[in-house]
Design brief:
163 residues, alpha/beta, YbaK protein, YbaK/aa-tRNA-synt-asso_dom_sf, PROXY, YbaK/aa-tRNA-synth-assoc-dom, YbaK/aminoacyl-tRNA synthetase-associated domain-containing protein, aminoacyl-tRNA deacylase activity
Length: 163
């Protein structure tokens, strides 16, 4: 599957569910701060997707953990809340196998049966729209926040780092 196939699958899903969204083509940006400026959105509107490997005693689960781009993940908290002892970021190879995307281009939707989708509730509390890369570092989707919640139906797990 290519980045265009991921994008097409994503937009078909959004269209089928009558979501309110728009697509933006833009130059490649490596960091959340840079892409937010290019998009004209707030950093906290970014839906950052982290592919994690959660492990525990007789427990192994890949997780696509989504949180606002202005937050840091507490992977230990994430692991404990979904039944594991520890969590780590998946390798680039694992990320590609599970999402068909490179780091930074992963949309906040899981299209793989072995990739559990969780989202931090903070994602739904501050902005009417979320922005995320849509299978490519050069293409973003800006989506109504409630439409994302309704369509993706992530398990809600509070795992942003609290200072």
């Amino acid at each position: 599957m290519s980045s265009n196939e991921i994008f097409n699958r994503l937009t078909a899903l959004l269209d089928n569910h009558h979501a309110s969204y728009r697509v933006m083509e833009h130059p490649t940006a490596g960091r959340s701060e840079e892409v937010a400026k290019i998009r004209g959105t707030q950093l906290g509107q970014g839906a950052k997707g982290l592919v994690c490997h959660v492990k525990g005693e007789r427990f192994r689960q890949y997780v696509l953990a989504v949180l606002p781009a202005d937050q840091q993940a507490d992977l230990s908290s994430l692991a404990k809340q979904i039944g594991g002892n520890r969590a780590s970021l998946a390798s680039p190879k694992e990320v590609f196998e599970l999402t068909q995307c490179v780091f930074g281009a992963i949309p906040p939707f899981s299209f793989h049966p072995d990739l559990k989708l969780v989202a931090d509730p903070l994602l739904f509390e501050r902005f009417d729209e979320l922005a995320f890369n849509a299978g490519s570092l050069e293409r973003s989707v800006i989506l109504n926040t409630q439409d994302y919640h309704r369509i993706a139906q992530p398990e809600l797990v509070s795992f942003h780092r609290v200072e």
